[in-house]
Amino acid sequence: MSTIVAFSVSPLGTGESVAPAVARAVKVVRESGLPNETSAMFTTVEGEWDEVMEVVRRAVEAAGEGADRVSMTLKADVRKGVTDGLHSKVEAVERELDGLR
């Protein structure tokens, strides 16, 4: 099953800036080799269920280094027969927007 997961992680109790922890999590995702994108609020990763969830698990661990608690928000789209949904979903919306202009 093709899976797209958008998630954010934040350690608790480590000070005001979470940038170092988020960078550790994003590094895990990027080194996974899976298609991914990072925005201001979420990192999105695409692949098969087991491999995506393993990357998320490792990213949470990386973000939590030095913290006793980590908060995570996760949204997933699990779908049969889709490839490159990370881009094709956005392209479909862009086509619709073109029709509205």
Describe the overall structure.
- With 101 residues, the protein is of the alpha+beta class.
- The chain contains three helices and four strands.
- It has helices at residues 19-31, 49-63, 85-100, and strands spanning 2-12, 36-38, 43-48, 69-79.
- The protein has a four-stranded antiparallel sheet with strand order 2-3-1-4, covered by helices on one side.
- Strand 2 (36-38) and strand 3 form a beta hairpin.
- The chain is globular and about 50 Å long.
- The model has no long low-confidence stretch (mean pLDDT 94).
Please give the structural blueprint:
Blueprint: E1 2-12, H1 19-31, E2 36-38, E3 43-48, H2 49-63, E4 69-79, H3 85-100
Antiparallel strand pairs: 1-3, 1-4, 2-3
Helix pairs in contact: 1-2
Largest sheet: 4 strands, antiparallel
C-alpha Rg, in Å?
15 Å
- Globally, the shape reads globular
SSE order, as H and E?
EHEEHEH
Gist?
By secondary structure, the chain is of the alpha+beta class.
